[in-house]
TrEMBL record:
InterPro entries: DedA_domain, VTT_dom. Keywords: Membrane, Transmembrane, Transmembrane helix. This is VTT domain-containing protein. The keyword Ion transport does not apply. The chain crosses the membrane at residues 46-66, 96-118, 124-146. It holds the Pfam family VTT_dom. The keyword Protein transport does not apply. Residues 37-143 form the VTT domain.
Amino acid sequence: MIHLTQYSMMQYLALFISAFGAATLLPLQSEAVLFSFLALKQQPAVVLLLVATVGNVLGSCVNWWLGIKIEQFKHKKWFPVSQQHMQKAQTIYHRYGFYSLLLSWVPIIGDPITLIAGVLKENFYRFLLMVTIAKAGRYLCIYLLYLGVM
């Protein structure tokens, strides 16, 4: 049974926020936060992994949603991505399809992949499944590294 104290809730919240933010286009990392909370051994590892995964997946969902909404602004001068770069990213996504979402955990390229999935109107449930597999797998690997298994 999990006993929630104010301190444990703050840990979970900090982990959730770092994982959520790391999945968006913000330059944040959640791995160090997760690793440090695992090292403290104050919270069950399975709950920490779940909180990190949920936060990270929800952050990717924000990218998907932004991708759907951002295309309406692509002809504006201030739009941050050139039409040429958008076309290139879309071509790559079309070539590998939704399987490219399995790389959504990879630093630098993962966040744009989730954004492009939204631009290309990827089915949300398929998006959610693939991103959840990728993100949960990454956090499981971090846990295995922590345990010294990998």
